Amino acid sequence: xxxxxxxxxxxxxxxxxxxxxxxxxxxxxxxxxxxxxxxxxxxxxxxxxxxxxxxxxxxxxxxxxxxxxxxxxxxxxxxxxxxxxxxxxxxxxxxxxxxxxxxxxxxxxxxxxxxxxxxxxxxxxxxxxxxxxxxxxxxxxxxxxxxxxxxxxxxxxxxxxxxxxxxxxxxxxxxxxxxxxxxxxxxxxxxxxxxxxxxxxxxxxxxxxxxxxxxxxxxxxxxxxxxxxxxxxxxxxxxxxxxxxxxxxxxxxxxxxxxxxxxxxxxxxxxxxxxxxxxxxxxxxxxxxxxxxxxxxxxxxxxxxxxxxxxxxxxxxxxxxxxxxxxxxxxxxxxxxxxxxxxxxxxxxxxxxxxxxxxxxxxxxxxxxx
Length: 370
Known about the structure:
Elements: H1 2-31, E1 36-39, H2 49-58, E2 63-66, H3 71-77, E3 83-88, H4 93-98, H5 100-112, E4 119-127, H6 139-154, E5 163-169, E6 173-175, E7 183-184, H7 189-202, E8 206-209, H8 212-218, H9 225-228, E9 237-239, E10 242-244, H10 247-261, E11 269-274, H11 286-299, E12 314-316, H12 353-360
Parallel strand pairs: 1-2, 1-12, 2-3, 3-4, 4-5, 5-8, 8-11, 11-12
Antiparallel strand pairs: 6-7, 9-10
Helix pairs in contact: 1-12, 2-3, 5-6, 6-7
GO molecular function: glucan endo-1,3-beta-D-glucosidase activity
Protein name: glucan endo-1,3-beta-D-glucosidase
Enzyme class: hydrolase
């Protein structure tokens, strides 16, 4: 009788331990994703692509933004399990927009030839094309290029696995304060609204490059450094019952509001670039960059006041300092030095399962500033 009771207790305990084990594994699977990092190549002292992929893996960086289909990088990504946002350079937009065969060839050469050993997640068709200004002549090609690339992906039955979009910057926003009144500039709506309509149709996110650094640099009188770095000790802006303790949330929520104000449909936002330079201009210091980036990594897991609790998929700019970029501050956005040494002492947000469990038990905060 006693041995039977002991045996039953043992079996029950084993089942409980197994259940708990499954819960821990599940938490790890859903919570351990790191932020991505953009892989720029405008330097003459950067390591070969194979070593760069090794650097991503060694530092638990599971997502990469690649600005063009560099063949060495794509070869090195085979079997790496790194999710890739692949860019169509602005210089290719006209060709892909005006000839669907060119888009099909581009997709075959740079995506299908590597799929599925390379885990493509997104294709970013163009970067920061603006219908007003220096790149305005390209604007007419962005949506047709997106559509032709999408059709090439769809023809292979991959349109639910590889989303096609474009990357915008915050200069397209005309009203950003207060965040709830965010709206796009009237002179970009004719360009942007059809793109948003396509994204709703294709169930694809819009990519956004968002840099509190440049807003702070452009207006340090009204924007405090702590507000820009996530270190403000209290709410700085109240807007319709929402409290803003950092500039990043205000910028993101003005973008969300601008998207909502179009009334075209719901579009998610992927933060395709954000960073802070460590040298080269006003406010560009090592300490400021480290503070911004480490806080950003923690903060994006919790969303913004307008989209609270919804993690923001985020790509840091960039993996290396790139010495062939201009102006000077553009050379200092790297999170690693070209010799592959870490510039900063933070990790990239991936967590061991015991960290996730501790977070689940409430002993760790998801947000650095809440």
